[in-house]
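Q: What structure does this chain adopt?
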Amino acid sequence: MSHTKLDKDFCDRFDLAAPRVGVKVFRSEFEDLQYPEWKTIKDEINKSAALFLLVGQELVKSQALAETNTEARDKWKFTQNWIAYEVGVACQRGMDVWVMCDSIPINFPVPYVNNYDVHGLNPEFKPQLDFLKAILFAYVQGRNWPADEKSSWRFQCPHCKAIYNICSQIGKGVVINCPTCLNSLTFPDGWLLPAE
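A:
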């Protein structure tokens, strides 16, 4: 799990869903990180099936605040560098990277992403919880979620040409940000998730 510990609620919701399907999530603030920390995180990513970048309210707020506040900028650089490192290790390994937003527009680019979920996880909304469990269980069974030509969830950004799966149902006329280039994406007819 790539995240900021400031988004504790969002991280906890994700963390609680995983054990229900037999998945152990590596969450650095609860683990014993040996020095150098980057090595422990690299080793854990190398043992993982996928990386989930959780984009919550606090992460987005930290980035926005960093644009005008020097102290916040230093904290954001620290967080941003760790996220870039973790996504970079996952990319080098060719593993799935998920960007899961907590119903908030992403405001920093993620150059390598396979799967994009704009709604995050509301534990009271059973379909979202069931969807996350299904994704995690698929990894337990050895399946991955590439944005290949066989995927009916596959989307190509018209601006940056990045290809990823959109793993959220999007209403007619709704605008979201591309997680790679941050340009606005409008869905006049909506985006329905196919049955797979």
